[in-house]
C-alpha cells in the first residue's frame, strides 16, 4: 500500500478530514521551512482541532434537537421585564456547572422561562457540556 493510500486510510479511521485536507500543503511548507516533526504534528493537529471547534458546536446543537438556534444574547429583555438581565447573563457563564448546582426557573405561565431554559441548554451544549436534565415543566405554550 502506498504512503498516500495509507495516510488516507488512517485519517478516515481517525475521523480527521480537516487534517487530511491540510496534509499536502502543510507537508510542503514543513519541508520548505525545515520544520521539526513535532512542529509539523502540532500544525496538523491544530488544523483538525480548529475545524472541530468551529463545526462541533453546530452538530451538538442539532443533536440536542433544540427547536431554534438562538443565544442568550438574542433574548428580548424588553418583552419580559420581570427577568433580571444581569442574573441571566451570569447564568449564561455556566458557573453552576462547575459547582454541580441545579438551576430552577420559576415564573407565570408563558414562553419566557421555557425560552431561557432552551437558551441556557444551548449554551451548555455549545461549550461541549452535557445537559443531562434540561427539563421544562409548566403549562405555558412553548
Order of helices and strands: HHHHHH
The stretches of 5 or more residues where confidence is low (pLDDT under 50) are 135-142
**Beta-strand content bin:** under 5%
| Arithmetic mean pLDDT | 77
Give the tally of structural domains: 2
Tell me the structural class: mainly alpha
The helix fraction, in percent, is 55-70%
Describe the structure.
This protein has helices spanning 3-13, 17-33, 37-64, 85-92, 95-98, 111-126. By secondary structure, the chain is mainly α. The chain contains six helices and no strands. α2 packs antiparallel against α3. The longest helix has 28 residues, at 37-64. The protein folds into two domains: 3-64, no CATH class; 72-126, no CATH class. The model is unreliable at 135-142 (pLDDT under 50). The radius of gyration is 22 Å and the shape is elongated.
Secondary structure topology:
Blueprint: H1 3-13, H2 17-33, H3 37-64, H4 85-92, H5 95-98, H6 111-126
Annotation keywords:
about 140 residues; about 60% helix; disordered C terminus; mainly alpha; 2 domains
